[in-house]
Amino acid sequence: MFEYLQKKLDKALHIFKGNSRINEINIAETLKDIRKALIDADVNYKIAKIFVQKVKEKSIGKKVLSSLNPKQLIIKIIYDELVSLMGKKNIEINISNNPTIILICGLQGSGKTSFSSKLSFFLKKKKKEPLLVAADIHRPAAIDQLKIIAEKDNLPVFFLKKSKNIIEIFDKSLIYASEKKCNVIIIDTAGRLAIDKIMMDEIQKIYQYSKPDETLFVVDSMTGQDAINTVQSFSKFLNIDGIVMTKLDGDSRGGAAITMSSIIGKPIKFISNGEKIENLEIFYPERIANRILG
Ligand code: GDP
Q: Which residues bind GTP (predicted)?
């Protein structure tokens, strides 16, 4: 994860040759390369420009502490800026209500169903009793898929194969949850290939009816800047509480993940980095910044 950006930044920092104070001249080329590294990693060019400007302002003329050399000082400044860009700290999901309702949405193929089961597994480890609800009324195969993934890991699933009514599925899942003493309901909604009216009407309907404690939007990080556009268009219709970025183990360049929260104003709550049930991490900006800086 984030190896692409890590390598590029490492190269940019490698060329820094200043050995006392940092000044306009000795940092110029490094800043240029940092900007290029960010843009290459899919960071929006305006954000990359502001980022570099801040690093410049904070580093030039700054007295280097005896414990740090100039290069370490720049790394520390970049680290602080990255953490701040990513929203500073993790915002936890709210699972205090009984039952807690979590609505999962996203485009088809983004990793919604995989994430729903990973979340269920994660919550079980936190001593919660989750219930996965297969609510894709358009693709029976999606229901089977959730069943297969969940049953493999012994995660309870609720589905009504013949129902085309998402409200009915939700209502009946609540009854089932109360019978089985489940206290977190994870609703895996239908995904579409693009954000369209039918998809939004359906999501709005279940959103308004179920009044979720958490609405999580799952997005594929491999789609780069498009990931940000997708979340932006979706959030015009629903109040998203958090973003889940998937497939960070692939060829994703990471730029969307590090800029998402500052562009959208919503936190990334989880990242997914593989196909296995345990490949889910809470999004901690400090940890990601540490990884990026090696
Ligand atoms: P959905 O249509 O949004 O429900 O997407 P799925 O959960 O079915 O995921 C689509 C494909 O992406 C599946 O083959 C998953 O195994 C895969 N996938 C999901 N999350 C990840 C991830 O974090 N890393 C990788 N490498 N593959 C993932």
A: 106-113, 188-192, 246-249
